[in-house]
Amino acid sequence: MAILPEELALHLMRFTAIDGEWLVAVDNVKQTQGHDNLLLHLILEQQIDEEQFLSRKLGLVLPAAVAFDPETSAQIIDQIREWLERGEGDGFLDLVPHG
Question: pTM score, two decimals?
Answer without folding.
Answer: 0.91
